[in-house]
Amino acid sequence: xxxxxxxxxxxxxxxxxxxxxxxxxxxxxxxxxxxxxxxxxxxxxxxxxxxxxxxxxxxxxxxxxxxxxxxxxxxxxxxxxxxxxxxxxxxxxxxxxxxxxxxxxxxxxxxxxxxxxxxxxxxxxxxxxxxxxxxxxxxxxxxxxxxxxxxxxxxxxxxxxxxxxxxxxxxxxxxxxxxxxxxxxxxxxxxxxxxxxxxxxxxxxxxxxxxxxxxxxxxxxxxxxxxxxxxxxxxxxxx
Amino acid sequence: xxxxxxxxxxxxxxxxxxxxxxxxxxxxxxxxxxxxxxxxxxxxxxxxxxxxxxxxxxxxxxxxxxxxxxxxxxxxxxxxxxxxxxxxxxxxxxxxxxxxxxxxxxxxxxxxxxxxxxxxxxxxxxxxxxxxxxxxxxxxxxxxxxxxxxxxxxxxxxxxxxxxxxxxxxxxxxxxxxxxxxxxxxxxxxxxxxxxxxxxxxxxxxxxxxxxxxxxxxxxxxxxxxxxxxxxxxxxxxx
DNA sequence: CGAGCTGTTGACATTGCTCAAATTTCGTGG
DNA sequence: CCACGAAATTTGAGCAATGTCAACAGCTCG
Lengths: 239, 239
Fold this sequence. Notes:
Two copies of one chain form a homodimer. By secondary structure, the first copy, chain A, is of the alpha+beta class.
């Protein structure tokens, strides 16, 4: 199924101590005393835009943490219809395993850096350092809550509400600085459509409609400015 | 928000040793030596059909295991639109917590029996018996994989495919005996519609269409017979 | 400068929704 | 066991949101 893993660029070693996302990632639960053990078992890999990290159903050998860039998770139907089940950002854990195979495919959106851990090593880490398992459990709890929220969006929100919810989510969780009322959308319209259960045309038309109403500005298809954040919040669920 | 928890019927004590679902539930990871500890902290409660177990946003004090019956998980939009994010069956864990509040509401579908554990006790159990944390992690992995699958269904499948996938899922996971090509649907059409992101009319019409095509028999709205399981499987994702 | 990709816009088709009414099921009491 | 009323389900007719197909525009890269 996947030659993809062989296409990975060659491993490079980075330093866990200076890792930008250490505080957000699973590794935050590794105390100073075990950092050597952690450093010994992780490696780093870079991916080019669009590159496949692994495909759904591939035998799972590694788990990953996102160090930089953004990753899309995809599930496919036999006829090619695609659902993007999530976008991962730095600090997120990557590698949901069901029956020792990946439960979704993962692809780099832009340039991506991953921190890789072989599963056998991860399991040893989990038994050696109880807080890591706790951290992982708490992270999957959060992920599950996010999945429930996404089901509500997919099943019951209108196209407009889907787009607005998506934009607000990005702003809330990935806003650069406190006062910055703007967000980047590194992914394509196809990715957004497949994430929200829409077509690219509907996504595009909805962006245009929101722009014409003055709810957003679109200086560039991948950058959104909110002139009035509260007005956008009103549009999210109030119909 | 919720007077519901006060409406619970009075706790009764059952025996963990004779528990029907012990092998499927979280408790399976509790070894014989710790069963006393387990028995000491669990209680049982019964719920009548339709009764609210807890609501989304309620402060979370208890976690549950389903002992008998079926439970629906619900999320609501301010205007009343509802998404059923899952149906839980005996052995399932209930009580996803985000920020010390329940992430969804839970309601009994038919008569339900729950095994209840106070969260503080559950946490003690988790630290005392490492395999329990492992089991819980593995259960939430499964749940997350199921959630991804449901996103694919909600975002990309047609009404017909949604219904067929739903029926096949029930058959695969809840079929009574090996050869039994029939399933029960204890929940209402409203529940099914809200689970699949459809309206009750569409659900009903789709059932009728499947019946007229001979793919299913409907001796009763809550019982489905599959005269030819393979034909149904073909209809699931092949468009 | 032209090819190709991504995004936008337009015209039309269709799935699934809305509103309304008929029918079946089910609980209750006689 | 049967009758009655309420609730759940099914069916019908028309409609609207969103999808499909097609053309066009803007940008990037060679």
